Amino acid sequence: MPGKRIAVIGAGISGLGAIKICLEEGLEPICFEGSNDIGGLWRYEEKTESGRPTVYKSTICNTSKEMTAYSDYPFPDHFPNYLHNSKIIEYLQMYAKHFHLLKHIQFLSKVCSVRKRSDFSCTGQWDVVVQTEGKQESYVFDGIMVCSGLYTDPLLPLQDFPGITSFKGQCIHSWEYKSPEKFQGKKIVVIGIGNSGVDVASELSHMAAQVFLSTRRGAWIWNRVWDYGMPIDTVLFTRFNAILNKVYPTFLINSLIEKKLNARFNHDTYGLLPQHRFLSHQATFSDDLPNHIITGRVMIKPNVRKFTKTSAIFEDGTEEDVDVVVFATGYTFSFPFLENNSTVLDSQCSMFKFVFPPQLEKPTLAFIGILQPVGAIMPVSELQSRWAARVFKGLNKLPSVSGMMADIEKKRKKFAKEYRNNSRDTRRVQYVDYMDEIASEIGVKPNLFSFFLWDPKLALEIFFGPCTPYQYRLQGPGKWAGARRTILTQRERIIKPLKTRTLTLVQPLNSVPFWLKSFCAALLLFVLTLVIIKA
Ligand SMILES: Cc1cc2nc3c(=O)[nH]c(=O)nc-3n(C[C@H](O)[C@H](O)[C@H](O)COP(=O)(O)OP(=O)(O)OC[C@H]3O[C@@H](n4cnc5c(N)ncnc54)[C@H](O)[C@@H]3O)c2cc1C
Ligand SMILES: *[C@@H]1O[C@H](CO)[C@@H](O)[C@H](O)[C@H]1NC(C)=O
Ligand SMILES: *[C@@H]1O[C@H](CO)[C@@H](O)[C@H](O)[C@H]1NC(C)=O
Ligand SMILES: *[C@@H]1O[C@H](CO)[C@@H](O)[C@H](O)[C@H]1NC(C)=O
Ligand SMILES: *[C@@H]1O[C@H](CO)[C@@H](O)[C@H](O)[C@H]1NC(C)=O
Q1: Which of 66, 256, 465, 513 is the most buried (most CB within 10 A)?
Q2: Which domains does the chain have, with CATH numbers?
Q3: At what angle do helices 13-24 and 378-392 cross, to 10 degrees?
Q4: Longest Cα separation, the chain
Q5: Res 1: pLDDT
Q6: Where, by residue number, does the polypeptide cross the bilayer (predicted)?
Q7: Is 324 helix (H, G, I), strand (E, B) or coil?
Q8: Using one digit for the tens of pLDDT, what is the confidence trace for 109-118?
């Protein structure tokens, strides 16, 4: 029997993982990619095209390489821990080549519509219309993996900013921002304190005359470089911490983390203190914002009340002349090729574990990577694909519609309780918890108990070490023989690109020669005696 034919929509991080998983599971994927190359968001281009996600020239990953890798393909050990976008692309190209993915991708092919076939309720098949170089072609597929990404349509809430239409300067969205050169000497206000806003403000401040960073609610700022210089996600995202998170009361975790972040720089003093607690809203990554604030290059401001022709008037009544406004106000996304796009869109909570729409007669439509893990997306979307592939093949069953709805309702309540009422946050998941939840569906969650009995060395690293994606390849379907070794060598791969100057010291640093010690002791005694005699 030939494998089922699966349409993968998009060849970004999620789409490439999906193709690989389909091949691994003996399915027949065809991937349609609207642009002319792989990489999606991570492929930097000079020009922004509408409908295409992009990064700016200097974008660096905010998740570290060991936590960001596909589960059976670690980053090369000499790659830095936090990767520039060009390195991510290099990795994706290596991945695509290694697993022979390219021949399954049709570039410059935009999926225009995905519709149920008339006999859908028994076959679960879809009619897919694809536009390639002006020509439309129809295909029939047994399953669909939607990997079209979350960051396509910039959100410009102009209606919230009175006077913006009469503002004479330049207005851009962070999506259009590429590099700082042409902003030399300008006065710039950046609106929004998410990751993009802070990155753009920090970078612009090297060139601009002055940068104002305007925020309604402030933010907790955390940094990539954590204690002892380790990547923050490798320190915080461990199974041990995931358990602590469950047993410690939330207020205690909040105050511990907030205390730590305030020890780096006081969020109140720096004008950043938010009204929300750390855990109830996404924190912003920035290693250098405090440096720019303390040098005055970036000035934190409240929300803009209104714009005049040449200036911004902030809610505290201050007015500043500005030449450029950068809206770092986030993105929306849509699936224009799907019917019922609005019901799917209303809120991601209406999807079973963010992957399966619960109302379909047959579970042959899966959404991959349409969520916001607090952590890297690559391993998450890859695991979602593994689950989807097994559901498509009938090896895993989904619960009944009411069972799925009950789960969705439960999650919705939990979100409402834990997070602020922010539509973006409804798609937020904790990395370890979500990975384990999906892994349990397919039986690839590492069984710690048996590892403690049979392989304590590995068990300790799994439990106390970073919860790296390789853990989900240790057992169950899709098991990878290299997983154990890759886990046990992960710390070496973190250190290697850092320690590029190895000390060839023969004697340990603290071995001060004996004569020097004696001399110092004698000197000390002498000085002390003098002091005592004087007194
Ligand atoms: C500035 C920025 C920084 C980020 N940093 C990180 C980070 O450090 N770590 C992290 O884990 N995540 C980060 N993210 C999240 C990011 O979404 C993911 O890293 C990742 O790019 C998601 O990949 P994807 O494949 O799901 O989507 P995308 O990269 O958006 O790819 C989607 C692909 O689908 C194609 N497509 C869309 N519609 C169609 C259609 N109808 N027909 C054919 N093709 C179509 C697009 O052309 C595109 O190639 C960041 C996001 C932004 C905006
Ligand atoms: C939703 O799908 C319909 C066709 O089914 C289409 O006409 C409409 O433009 C879509 N809406 C959005 C927001 O994409
Ligand atoms: C669209 O909505 C109708 C009615 O709610 C439903 O029967 C159908 O399955 C939905 N289609 C998809 C693709 O979700
Ligand atoms: C990394 O940055 C992206 C884009 O701003 C954001 O969506 C994601 O949540 C960030 N990751 C973490 C772990 O905060
Ligand atoms: C939170 O969201 C719900 C539904 O989306 C809405 O009814 C409610 O008013 C919101 N609450 C606040 C405080 O914004």
Answers
A1: 66
A2: 5-152+332-397+429-438 (3.50.50.60), 158-327 (3.50.50.60)
A3: 40
A4: 105
A5: 53
A6: 514-533
A7: strand
A8: 999 999 999 9
**Shortest-distance Cα residue to atom 4 of ligand 4:** 195
- Yes or no: say if 267 and 276 are a contact pair by the CB < 8 Å rule: no
Q: What atom in ligand 4 is closest to the CA of residue 195?
A: 5
Residue nearest to atom 12 of ligand 2 (CA): 336
User: Residue with the nearest Cα to atom 1 of ligand 4?
Assistant: 62
Q: From the CA of 15, how far away is ligand 1's center (Å)?
A: 9
Rounded Cα distance between 519 and 474, Å, is 58
Tokens of 483: 């997983």
Cα separation, 86 vs 68, in Å, equals 15
Residues with CB under 6 A from ligand 2: 334, 336, 339, 341
The count of other CB atoms within 10 Å of the CB of residue 12 is: 26
User: Which residues, judged by CB distance below 6 Å to any ligand atom, belong to the binding site of ligand 3?
Assistant: 116, 339-340, 357, 359-360
Q: Which atom of ligand 4 is nearest to the CA of 372?
A: 9
Type of residue at 247: V
**How is 124-139 classified by DSSP, letter by letter?**
--EEEEEEETTEEEEE
Residue 112 CA: which ligand is closest? 1
- pLDDT of 493 higher than 80: yes
| Distance from the Cα of residue 163 to its chain's centroid | 34
Predicted local confidence at residue 435, as pLDDT: 97
- DSSP conformational letter for 346: S
Task: With CA atoms as reference, report the closest residue to 230 among 490, 463, 461.
Answer: 490
Instruction: Determine the Cα–Cα distance for residues 269 and 179; give it in Å rounded to an integer.
Output: 30
Q: Which ligand 4 atom sits closest to the C-alpha of 63?
A: 13
Three-state secondary structure along 152-208? CEECCCHHHCCCHHHCCCEEEEHHHCCCCHHHCCCEEEEECCCHHHHHHHHHHCCCC
DSSP per-residue codes, 259-316: HHHHHHS-TTTTT---SS-GGGS--EE-SSHHHHHHTTSEEEE--EEEE-SSEEEETT
Q: Cα separations (Å) of 367 from 71, 166, 255, 519?
A: 19, 41, 36, 72
